[in-house]
Amino acid sequence: MAVKLATPQTSATRQKLELHPDRALPVDPDQRAIARTIYAQTKDLPLICMHGHVEAEVFATDQPFADPAQLLIVPDHYVTRMLVSQGMTLPELGVPRLDGGPVETDPRTIWRAFCTNWKLYRGTPSRYWLEHELVEVFGVDLVPSAETADALYDRIASVVADPDFRPLALLDRFNIEVISTTDAASSDLSHHRSLAEQGYGERVLPTFRPDAVACMDRAGWRRSVDALGVAAGIEIGDFAGFLEALRSRRRAFVAAGARASDHGHDLADTTPMDGHAAERLFARALAGEQVSLEEARAFAAHMLFEFAGMSVEDGLVMQLHPGVLRNHHDGMFAQHGLDKGFDIPHAVEYTRALRPLLQAYGTDPRFRMILFTIDETVYTRELAPMAGVYPAVKLGAPWWFIDSPEGMRRFRETATETAGFYNTSGFVDDTRAYASIPARHDLFRRIDAGFLARLVLEHRLGEDEAVETAQDLAYHLPKAAYARRDQI
Amino acid sequence: MAVKLATPQTSATRQKLELHPDRALPVDPDQRAIARTIYAQTKDLPLICMHGHVEAEVFATDQPFADPAQLLIVPDHYVTRMLVSQGMTLPELGVPRLDGGPVETDPRTIWRAFCTNWKLYRGTPSRYWLEHELVEVFGVDLVPSAETADALYDRIASVVADPDFRPLALLDRFNIEVISTTDAASSDLSHHRSLAEQGYGERVLPTFRPDAVACMDRAGWRRSVDALGVAAGIEIGDFAGFLEALRSRRRAFVAAGARASDHGHDLADTTPMDGHAAERLFARALAGEQVSLEEARAFAAHMLFEFAGMSVEDGLVMQLHPGVLRNHHDGMFAQHGLDKGFDIPHAVEYTRALRPLLQAYGTDPRFRMILFTIDETVYTRELAPMAGVYPAVKLGAPWWFIDSPEGMRRFRETATETAGFYNTSGFVDDTRAYASIPARHDLFRRIDAGFLARLVLEHRLGEDEAVETAQDLAYHLPKAAYARRDQI
Amino acid sequence: MAVKLATPQTSATRQKLELHPDRALPVDPDQRAIARTIYAQTKDLPLICMHGHVEAEVFATDQPFADPAQLLIVPDHYVTRMLVSQGMTLPELGVPRLDGGPVETDPRTIWRAFCTNWKLYRGTPSRYWLEHELVEVFGVDLVPSAETADALYDRIASVVADPDFRPLALLDRFNIEVISTTDAASSDLSHHRSLAEQGYGERVLPTFRPDAVACMDRAGWRRSVDALGVAAGIEIGDFAGFLEALRSRRRAFVAAGARASDHGHDLADTTPMDGHAAERLFARALAGEQVSLEEARAFAAHMLFEFAGMSVEDGLVMQLHPGVLRNHHDGMFAQHGLDKGFDIPHAVEYTRALRPLLQAYGTDPRFRMILFTIDETVYTRELAPMAGVYPAVKLGAPWWFIDSPEGMRRFRETATETAGFYNTSGFVDDTRAYASIPARHDLFRRIDAGFLARLVLEHRLGEDEAVETAQDLAYHLPKAAYARRDQI
């Protein structure tokens, strides 16, 4: 372990871990007082979790979580990447290797490494979420450190073993009204069928994620197209068949309760290809011909345009999450696969990129689109101006690295003046760390309370308006943004 | 109307509309106290309005405004775009169709839609300005809502009918020392002649805006060139004649009191075309040949370089406002024309783009240039560094969507450290909403007072210096930035 | 002098210049109290100055500084550029002309111009640093103005003449534990040999800066390559010889105590050239053939990749400072040469640009890289995400125009949540203004204290943790980031 700082960590002297009721509220006493009042009116509202990455299988099988390391560390790339940044390796943290090579298997060893390096998380949202989870979910009052690691481990392990801590039971405990999973276009949705049979069909919903077949440059594109065909019961022999299979799966998703599709393209481009170019390119790719990066991007753009058209037909809300260069380090991708903390954002252009799609559908009352970004420079410049005029467009909550106290605050400061509050989606949690969901919603409600309290103190908003707005942002807006079209 | 929020608007319970004397001042009590002191020294300074979009005809004919909807809603794209973003249509808001098709004609209906949706403006500068206007200009004390809409309408209508509310009378009431209009290069300036005859020749000034002839890709370019020729009394047969006509009109503008030219190009590029390329391209375009987007951009860049040279000759201050993709939605443009809220900013590069112009004229004491941006990322990176060294360059006030409390605050925070205060233009209001001008200046003075108060409290500035700086920013700097060259 | 503001400067009435003990600390009283406590624990820590631009000769010869103008104005482009921006010329400020033409030679005249225009520096970091220097270093208590200029000049001149004010003596007075100079790859390091003989070999260290030979588009590239060969004692006849000479000089720098290399390329690109393309391009350039800008950039990118490999071999920390268009105004460059305030930043991309280098070396425990930027939009989007996962990468302190109170604050707000504190380098002063070094470190410690105090008040960090973090950022982290590899 390469963390060799000049001074030993002294924070273990602050032994008692507590959550202060005013945490993440503003510093100014008057502003804090108003923020407290606002937050008191939102903190108990149910959670609407319409863009999640917890696997459907976790809910469908409802098995207990394995151990503290498997619950809180190994699958959370926010947590592992910080340790990697200071010299630990993914195998040392128990992250599986694709070649089945050896990795750390002792969860307690992994847990100790994490606790010993607790210092590294200072100032990060991971620290904030983890403190919330330790206290609120696991009833712990020890600050993580080398000395407290074992005691913490034992406490959490006992909670995890409790039947009340199974995934479905946590839905109630976490006050989750509804949660979405993210599912490949080729998913057979069997887990959601099973959930429906268990009575959770209105509470755990699938989301249609077709990136694997829309992006020809993704590894295994051909395999994904084949799987799509199998799921749809359609022999995909040409582009028309491809579109038909996608439409068919979307109908199946809608039938299973899906409210949205999700698109994580590299770029935001939505330019449709001319004439029959998409058909020809698809045929070439299907025949196994090499497709250039430029061609793959043109096809991906064309597909975003197609998906918007399908949304008009079937009512799925179209979510767009562009601007991340996935798998920045080839070696790490080859060794460990996707989503291991080596995804790095880049600048992304929306104004010209979305123009073709918005010209076609942006004022169509049947179309709904939620735009996310990890490049926050576009809030004032591009996204708020578009959300502030196109009826189809809502601005999503700050995403990924900017789903954080400072990121959320900057989002309100930069987006509100042009888009208003009511052209935003309200909070969207977007995580695969199930136990962190309540912490994330809670943090958002606190930051919004602080921002609104400033507007009140600056006499830009009445206090009653601030409370109503906070409630809308926390609950009513996400519920409305992802409502079934027939229930709007 | 598609605004269907889960909770009814409760703000109508806050019945009394009042302007708090401390609005938009900082939250911290000590900072607010200092800000109050500073603001007290600027609030009554006259308004210098050197970049406005109120039509010259409004002043020249001095007719009363039609009704509350025509005064406050229909022509203000900030206001209409927010309603459109939630599902209303421009025709429902009374915005004329180019084809003369039917639009809402009852001003009271339009006014009611606006009041009913007052909630949407929470947190926006429109809300701030409108509250100021309702109280200060119209003497209203009712919060807009479905219930209060008619009472508000009647009150405003009676004010609008008052002779003291005519455009020229408002100049005094608004404490406007001088105001500019924006006029096409082909304008015959007849309204300004009429104003001069009425004794307003030093108070209502034209601004030379030649975009329609500098940008070959604009609709009606050829018609605009012809109109320019007519106004200049010159048969424009080649590029030399074109330049001669422009020079001639600039002289006429200067004679009519103009202080500045204004340039709203898509990009900031100022690269002159080589040798006789501009002549040849102009000839082709004049002959009706198709000109590519690239060629049109090269010509526009060449023209910015030419206009800088003309400014050296005639002393007009050159204002540059690049970076907006106008008419993002073709359908809306076809139906309603320019400036209907569908203009979306995009990233714009200044460092390389302005280099040719600044190499030629940036250190020339006869040249003055004011740079505006709507892409605020360039303040620290490009604009403040250029304004902080080139004597010709001043940084304009935050423009368009960032002419707002948060935008102004960020502007000071990001531009001041590198450009200082004295390389900025002071406030430039830039609006076609006449009644909002006092509110805009007032807001700017409040935000500057708050920023300066922080510097005082952080012991980075003396309080006497802060007061003097605030007065310079509010009044002396814009007056100096746009002074006649012979009066500097 | 073109500064003709409408109101006279009144700040001379605030005659007494004092440094308030709470300067640059936060406005909120509770936050300020905590910040004071934190700052008290860092203010006396020694200064680690690992990226400086004071010339080695200044230390080696240890001559007294010439006069107040030569010490504080003429060589400081932050100071001169502000006066130039308001109409003074570089010759009027005594800045030498390359052609030997006349410039102002009376230091008192230059000093008076500066004092008379003190107003221009309001709100800038130069003002902050200069106030600190005047009071702390020169014992002055007069606010600069036309009236006080001469008294100030005399006081400073007498201090400068004092033997205790010689460069080496100031190392102790400034509490500088170690300072780096910046030295061309071709430097014979004779000044550092002399310093070693005087017992300063561990305290004044060279830094290896090879831009002049890595960037073929720089003026005098061929001459720089020749000088490199001479210094290395190698006849550079081909690319292999070039690399051998670089390696040889790096070894000499390491032997002289160097800890780091420094790279100020235009772009951040690190893509290695294919096969033997670099060899061939180098041969062509060496033969005097014209090299295009694109070729020069490809070569510079290739060299960054090569330098990373050399860092793996010899342990020098690789510092990257891209994104500035040097010598924006050709005429000023021709007249006065480099570093005269006419360098303007531009947007720079890191995510794709650094990928080749990071794929090769980013997880190699032998490699260390510190990334700087002047384009602060990349903190949340690109740099913090990379520093937050790649063990080789640390984020440098805000650089150049953003080495300022607001810039530093924004840096912590935008970088910390994703990179944490411990993937940053701590403070790096980066200045050629020797007397400003204590002020710069002091300001950084104050801003960090304020930021950490907010985290404490928001219950996101314990106060003991905040103190420890502040000490790490001020002292331990820069010391560790630039430690000899064998001493990590």
Automatic annotation (TrEMBL), chains A, B, C:
Cross-referenced Pfam families: UxaC
Keywords: Isomerase
InterPro entries the UniProt entry points to: Metal_Hydrolase, Uronate_isomerase
Record carries keyword Membrane: no
EC primary class: isomerase
EC number: 5.3.1.12
Pathway: Carbohydrate metabolism; pentose and glucuronate interconversion
Catalytic activity: D-glucuronate = D-fructuronate
GO molecular function, one term: glucuronate isomerase activity
Keyword Isomerase tagged: yes
GO BP of this protein: D-galacturonate catabolic process; D-glucuronate catabolic process
Membership in a protein family: Belongs to the metallo-dependent hydrolases superfamily. Uronate isomerase family.
Protein name: Uronate isomerase
